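Quick one, T. Sequence first:
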Amino acid sequence: MIKIVDLVKSFDGRRVLDKVNLKIKQGETMVIMGGSGCGKSTLLRHLIGLETPDSGHVFIKGIDITKKNENELIEIRKKYGMLFQSGALLNSLTVGENVALPLTEHTTLDPKIINIIIKMKLELVGLSGFENLMPSQLSGGMKKRVGLARAIAMDPEIVFYDEPGAGLDPITAAVIDKLIMDLSSKLGMTSIVVTHEMNSAFRIADRMAVLYNGKVVQIGTPDQIKKSEHPYVKQFVSGAPDGPEPLKREKGDYLKRLMGTYE
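Structure tokens:
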């Protein structure tokens, strides 16, 4: 479904993606994980076509999207769904109007048909009957579920998830994880999940790719990642302070010492 070949991207002389290679199979859930600043979000933006690489290629179903212009990318993106980290709902629109947005913008469906689709998608995420509420009336987890309903409104072949559990309590995050797994299974979608949440990653992944310093340092099943002997992967999975990613201890920087912030 997706093939990334020797992808390179730099910002202000700093190489964020360093010859990334990755294949994602049709229908699988691929989790891309790594520490802050490792290139996860930059890689996601390339997959969506929001960034142009310095070199390398991104093939979606055999089509090299790095060679497409903006109008061509718009057509390709209609086959995508995207769950943003914050949910990214429009506060001036109702829940139903938010879910309907891709359909009203990109199709000529009759409003009655769109209303039926809205109800179906909200039911899939456990929010049947919520279409007339405003985003301000929803909890954080409910907003994520509405965002997910919008992401699948046009029955996409590929759904991208940017930190789906961010800002949620463990129970609500687990509910979102279960929804991702259920929807991928029921709808046969290919899912790409960017996260650094270990519990979530191991719950939902068919395979995982670990990024470090702009490179994919390991790809494997959750069990293979857990048993990895790669120094950074072991450190990342265990959350240990000692390893290739050192704890930052600047002289006089007491806050960073107390918070255990990594470089």
